[in-house]
Structures are given as C-alpha cells and as structure tokens.
C-alpha cells in the first residue's frame, strides 16, 4: 500500500515498493563497471599484442605457415565486438543513472547480444584448424557465463518490482 508522510500541501502517500538502485540492481551496476574495465583492458591488450606486433602479419599473411583465411575476420570480429560492447556498457551506465524507462530493454538486448557474440566467436575459432592442432580450445566458458547471465538477469528485468519502480523517466 504505502505510508502517509507530511508534505508542504498536507499529507502525501509514499509507496512502500522497492525503488532506486539498490537490492539486486547493485550487482548489475557492479557488473557493468567490471565489463567496462575488462573490455578496456582487452582492447588495449589486443592493440599491443596483436595489432602492434608482428602477430597480425604472421596470422594474416598467406605466406605464413600459420595462416588461415579465417584469422583476419575472426580477429576483426573480436576487436569490433569488444569496442561495441564497451560503448554499449558505457551507454547502459548513463541510462541506469538517469533511471530511463528504456534501460531494462537495453539491458535485455545487451545480455542477448553478448551471448550471441560469444557463440559466433566460438564458431569462428573452431573453424581454424591450427587452434585444434595446438590444443587451443575456444573459450566455451564465456558462452556458459553469458548464458547464465542471460537466464538470470533477463527474467529479473522483466519481473522485478524494483526495476519497474526505478526506471520511470
């Protein structure tokens, strides 16, 4: 129901429903900041190790003995995906703090797109025979992690009263 509190014009009914960035939304907030931090590190690492060194030339040159035609599109896909998700996460932080009504829908899209990204990346990497020869398995754990996030947080954003009461602008 609610609680009556004094107001300038008399009494005002305040809702007892959960509201604001609290409860489980704190974990979402922490997750977004960790995502931004890890993606920044990942993009910087990619630039220095893959693009900045000889690795790019070795992997993408047809004259190289480790060449595979999928290296270039896979590496570009990973870099572009990480940059897009970095910007997407920053956009979500802005929406969250402005308590925009569109935030839950964007978060659902973020979790779904992240899972799809990991699946496509896995498929690309498994089609590079050289990785299998060296015993390098593509990261199946990232698909599992993104699926767990998807299965936990999407229902939360759809059903939570706190989400419904917080993101109203």
UniProtKB/TrEMBL annotation:
**Pfam families this protein is in?**
DUF2569
Is Zinc among the key words of this record?
Answer: no
Q: Is Transmembrane helix there in the keyword field?
A: yes
The transmembrane residues are 21-48, 75-97, 109-130, 142-158
Q: InterPro entries given for it?
A: DUF2569 (IPR019690)
Q: Which residues form the signal peptide?
A: none
| Alphabetically ordered keywords of this record | Membrane, Transmembrane, Transmembrane helix
For this entry, the protein name equals: DUF2569 domain-containing protein
Q: Which organism is it from?
A: Paenibacillus borealis
């Amino acid at each position: 129901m609610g609680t009556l509190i004094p107001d300038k014009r008399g009494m005002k009914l305040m809702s007892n429903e959960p509201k604001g960035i609290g409860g489980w939304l704190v974990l979402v907030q922490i997750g977004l900041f960790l995502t931004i931090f890890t993606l920044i590190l990942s993009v910087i690492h990619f630039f220095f190790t893959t693009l900045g060194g000889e690795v790019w030339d070795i992997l993408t040159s047809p004259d190289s003995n480790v060449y595979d035609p999928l290296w270039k599109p896979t590496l570009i896909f990973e870099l572009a995906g990480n940059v897009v998700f970095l910007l997407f996460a920053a956009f979500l932080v802005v929406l969250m703090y402005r308590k925009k009504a569109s935030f839950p829908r964007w978060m659902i899209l973020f979790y779904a797109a992240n899972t799809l990204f990991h699946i496509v990346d896995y498929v690309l990497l498994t089609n590079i025979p050289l990785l299998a020869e060296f015993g390098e398995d593509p990261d199946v754990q990232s698909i599992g992690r993104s699926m767990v996030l998807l299965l936990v947080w999407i229902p939360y954003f759809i059903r939570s009263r706190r989400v419904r009461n917080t993101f109203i602008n």
